[in-house]
Amino acid sequence: MKMSRLYDTIEPSVVDEELLKKAVEEQGPKDQAGRIAKEEGIHFRDVTHLRLDFKNILKIDNLWQFTALTKLQLDNNIIERIQGLDSLTNLVWLDLSFNNIEVIEGLDALVKLEDLSLYNNRISEIANIDTLCNLQVLSIGNNSLDQLENLVYLRRFKRLRSLNLAGNPICEDENYKMFIAAYLPELVYLDFRLVDENTREVASLQYQYAIDEIKHNENMAQRKLTEELQKQEELELHKAAYVEFLNGSFLFDSMYSEDPETAKLAYLPGMHLLLESYKSKFVAICQQIFENGLKQHVKREAEVATFFECLREATESNQEKGSEKVAGFEERKREIFSELHQLTDMSLLETRIAQYNKEINELCDSLMMLELQLLDQLEDIIKDFERNISDMMTGFIEFVQGMISQCRDLENNHHEKLQEIAINMLEKVLKNEFVEDIPDEVRMLFVDKDTVVNIVSASHDIHLLKIDNREDDLITRANEWTTSLVEKVHSDEVKRNRKRILEINIYIDYLRDEIENLDLPDSV
Fold first, then answer.
1. How remote is the C-alpha of 478 from its chain's centroid?
2. Are 75 and 95 in contact (CB under 8 A)?
3. Are the beta carbons of 173 and 151 closer than 8 angstroms?
4. Are residues 341 and 432 in the same domain?
5. What's the mean pLDDT in 154-173?
6. For a 10 Å CB count at each end of the chain, is N or C smaller?
7. Is 254 part of any domain?
């Protein structure tokens, strides 16, 4: 029997700092570790398990700091809505049982969730958990589920192994177990009982045609999804090459989509062939830009990969030399320290320590020299790369500008021919020789020469603006990528150099402190 908790006689609790801190302290380390944790404080961001059960909580709130949380108990409260969990992206186990939840929602961000309990609530439909692809255990018994067909939704969860539905109205259906065994063939446990193979076989036969149909639909949907993903991947590649939508008539069509007046002029005698010729040549140029763009993108990617490989090889080679020097020094240090512990003569001891400090300085100079050599080497590599990538991008941009210039020439040529056809038609209209069968809306354009010229010129301006904007967009993005890449390379190299120098200085300081604090014989 479902028992939703009432709160008309209960004072709801607020999930505030005080409640959370108390819960964390109560559930934290005990004894000495607990006292230390209490003194130093436990950061919410470090907590992995949290129990907030039996707190009379009405609203889930203020959990955004618990980003490391993997297990959260919110059972036995008076929660009405699932909310405030978006930041808990590491959550694996969530218990929301024994609450007053009516709708499954607010779980989209919990993509790592494996175990979800919504037992004993007021839920009437399983929905809105599409992103929980890792779900293995779902407990949603003692709710208001009354449609067997709703359970087909669970087929998308390929890892689901345990499902508890006991206590829902659907369990009263005589086909309940067979339906689930047929539609969820990967399920191992239903209502805490093992689904035996005999039940699966009988269910499979009983629902064979329905299952075949749903599998067909799923396969169709999967193929469609795969195609969409492939198209999206292709589009991202085209964008990376700055030539998206140039492998077809998109740019040409866009010029006319915002030019309704010129579309009317397409009805004029001779315009159909003129437009077809114009479109064919224009699209061919766009295709050349597209194909060249993809080729240049591949070359740039190869150049970038080669550059970073050169950086890696040069850095690793230099680090190996440094490591060899450090290893040699550490071996020498062991010998010197062993000798120092055996010396009893103060004068000789001071001499040996002074000699050791000198060797430390020499090691420092040697490591710094290696870093300086690497700095010069990488600077040359970066300069070559910067020149190469800039030349490649400049060449591509110049090619695009040449092609776009041809598009403008086509548009200018088309404009002249269109204007000539329009003026000729106007003259026929003025001489009452207008006999062609064209729509009235086109006929009305030929009022006078200024009107016709303005329409054709406005169309021309729209087309040129579209061409100019596409060119500007391509060039701007290409230059921004080049600038951003080069700036990042220089910035990363500065950070690497500073980090390496800091490492050397820390190591040298450690060696100097070590000799200063060396525990020598008391006689000395």
1. 22
2. yes
3. no
4. yes
5. 95
6. N
7. yes
Longest dimension (CA), the chain: 128
Q: How far apart are CA 296 and CA 73, in angstroms?
A: 55
Residues 160 and 258 in one domain: no
Residue 162 to residues 188, 190, 192, 223: CA-CA distances in angstroms?
6, 6, 7, 28
Whole-model pTM: value is: 0.71
Q: What is the CATH number of the domain that holds 432?
A: 1.20.1230
For the segment 387-438, what is each residue's pLDDT rounded down to a tens digit?
A: 999 999 999 999 999 999 999 999 999 999 988 888 887 777 677 665 566 6
**Of the candidates 436, 467, 415, the residue with the CA atom closest to the CA atom of residue 275:** 415
d(CA 37, CA 39): 5
- Asked whether 262 and 256 are in contact (CB, 8 A), the reply is yes
pLDDT (tens digit per residue) in 445-464 = 666 777 778 888 888 999 99
pLDDT tens profile 496-515: 999 999 999 999 999 999 88
Domain range for residue 503?
250-516
What residues have CB less than 8 Å from 464, skipping those under 6 apart?
408, 411
Span 344-377, pLDDT tens digits? 788 888 889 899 999 999 999 999 999 999 999 9
Rounded CA separation 84/60 (Å): 6
Chain length of the chain: 524
The answer to the question of residue 227 being in a domain is no
Q: Which residues contact 298 (CB under 8 A, 6 or more apart)?
A: none
